[in-house]
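Good morning,

Attaching, inline, the backbone tokens for the sequence recovery test we're adding to the shared suite. The designed sequence is right after.
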């Protein structure tokens, strides 16, 4: 292999898996953050930028300009636990309180050091999906929360 080919090779020891992550949430007082339970899946959080078509005078060509920015909701799924942090937050919203919080999804490296951080801001819960229970099943009871976010950042 030539020297140029070896430089272009990807160091796979730094690839981050999708199976080791933590969910960190700001407290109700907005004075600290803590890890809020274990989740078996977290999805969403994408960003979309609206494309606006613009024409100028008698120019026959359309130009494209970036428009408004939309942040996708984040969905959290976990096995049912006795941890009430997300339920208490959801209850605040149900009671009419404007309880927006910031937090992070932390993707861990294989040695459990922080690999990347996905921060979200101005979030609040918009839905909760209750558990499905069945006497003839041995599956874990799962609950899902969906969060609406104002803005996200990758670090």
């Amino acid at each position: 292999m030539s020297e140029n080919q070896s430089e272009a090779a990807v160091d796979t020891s730094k690839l981050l898996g999708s199976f080791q992550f933590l969910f960190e949430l700001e407290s109700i007082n907005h004075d600290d953050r803590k890890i809020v339970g274990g989740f078996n899946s977290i999805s969403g959080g994408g960003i979309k930028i609206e494309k606006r078509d613009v024409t100028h005078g008698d120019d026959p060509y359309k130009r494209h300009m970036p428009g408004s920015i939309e942040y996708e909701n984040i969905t959290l799924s976990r096995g049912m636990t006795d941890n009430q942090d997300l339920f208490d937050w959801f209850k605040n919203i149900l009671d009419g309180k404007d309880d927006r919080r910031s937090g992070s999804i932390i993707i861990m490296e294989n040695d459990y050091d922080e690999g990347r951080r996905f921060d979200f801001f101005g979030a609040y819960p918009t839905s909760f999906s209750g558990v499905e229970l069945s006497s003839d099943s041995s599956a874990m009871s799962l609950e899902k929360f969906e969060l609406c976010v104002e803005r996200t950042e990758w670090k």
